[in-house]
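Ops channel
N.P.: pipeline sanity check, posting one input/output pair.
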């Protein structure tokens, strides 16, 4: 009971910080906008291309589910529909709950349908996100070497995150082999016996989740589908911008996705409002896209993203009979 007021305060501070950041980024994104041109770009969109972009997005969601299933099936057996339901419920949570709470939603749904612990499932989910970030950062860093002009902030951040991505990659390789060391360290730290046992078990589940990448077959399959996922997402960006009269090369679409991926690590309101607009404008304008057109694309892309997540996520969440418990399981995330 004593932790409840502290958690409530963390919720409040997180909400205030993310709202303030969204307001600042929206201010810089919307300065000097010609709203008539933004509206004209949106209303003259070629909807057949937007429909194609939505279809490709559906394929990307399905492939993501199939890819996550590779990790989950290390110690269990899930069919694709079950993992797809959990994945889409998670995306729905990420769109409408703060701080990527959807990761807890999909973790609860999977763990409640198997003997896998929540810690293990969450570790596979977060490891999946970490590998995505590593892949995006490394790919965009290579692309940026041959890009001029380039967004200065993205170039600076990319160098730093490329180093962090390298560290993350090493961690996936090395950390799972440190189980005995971690257990010895935990047993030497003075603490109540029950708490020590819980921490030892927690560490074991985390290391087990990371160890899923140590199978060459699973790693090869995961890497292949990661390339497919981000290729589909790049094509979605290209088709979506083409619908609004812009023609982006593959490399610029990849840079935009990398920027959005980096931006998602910031404290954000549900759906990354503000961050999405700022990143889109900052990445696209150096490549000849007007500020107004970039902003128009951000609005259309974000709106269609909400629609797709609702269309696929609501039935998925409803199919998960314990969906109320899944959402409640996501509630503590801002306090982590």
């Amino acid at each position: 009971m004593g932790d409840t007021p502290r958690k409530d305060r963390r919720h409040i501070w997180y909400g205030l910080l993310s709202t303030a950041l969204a307001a600042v980024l929206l201010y810089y994104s919307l300065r000097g906008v010609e709203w008539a041109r933004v509206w004209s770009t949106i209303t003259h969109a070629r909807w057949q291309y937007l429909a194609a972009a939505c279809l490709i997005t559906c394929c990307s969601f399905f492939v993501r589910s199939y890819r996550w299933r590779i990790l989950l099936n290390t110690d269990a057996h899930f069919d694709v529909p079950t993992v797809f339901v959990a994945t889409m419920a998670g995306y729905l949570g990420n769109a409408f709950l703060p701080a990527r709470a959807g990761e807890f939603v999909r973790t609860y749904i999977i763990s409640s349908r198997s003997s896998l612990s929540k810690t293990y499932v969450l570790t596979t989910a977060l490891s999946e996100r970490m590998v995505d970030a590593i892949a995006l950062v490394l790919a965009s860093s290579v692309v940026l070497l041959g890009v001029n002009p380039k967004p200065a902030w993205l170039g600076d951040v990319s160098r730093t995150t490329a180093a962090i991505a390298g560290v993350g990659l090493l961690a996936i390789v090395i950390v799972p082999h440190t189980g005995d060391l971690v257990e010895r360290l935990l047993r030497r730290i003075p603490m109540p016996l029950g708490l020590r046992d819980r921490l030892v078990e927690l560490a074991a589940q985390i290391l087990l989740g990371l160890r899923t990448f140590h199978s060459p077959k699973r790693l090869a399959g995961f890497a292949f589908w990661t390339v497919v996922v981000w290729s589909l997402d790049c094509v979605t960006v290209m088709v979506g911008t083409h619908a609004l009269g812009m023609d982006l090369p593959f490399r610029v679409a990849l840079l935009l996705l990398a920027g959005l991926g980096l931006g998602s690590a910031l404290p954000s309101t549900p759906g990354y409002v503000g961050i999405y607009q700022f990143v889109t404008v900052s990445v696209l304008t150096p490549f000849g896209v007007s500020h107004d057109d970039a902003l128009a694309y951000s609005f259309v892309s974000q709106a269609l993203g909400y629609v797709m997540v609702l269309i696929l996520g609501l039935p998925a969440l409803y199919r998960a009979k314990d969906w109320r418990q899944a959402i409640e399981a996501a509630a503590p995330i801002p306090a982590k």
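N.P.: looks fine end to end. Residues 332-336 have pLDDT under 50 and may be disordered.
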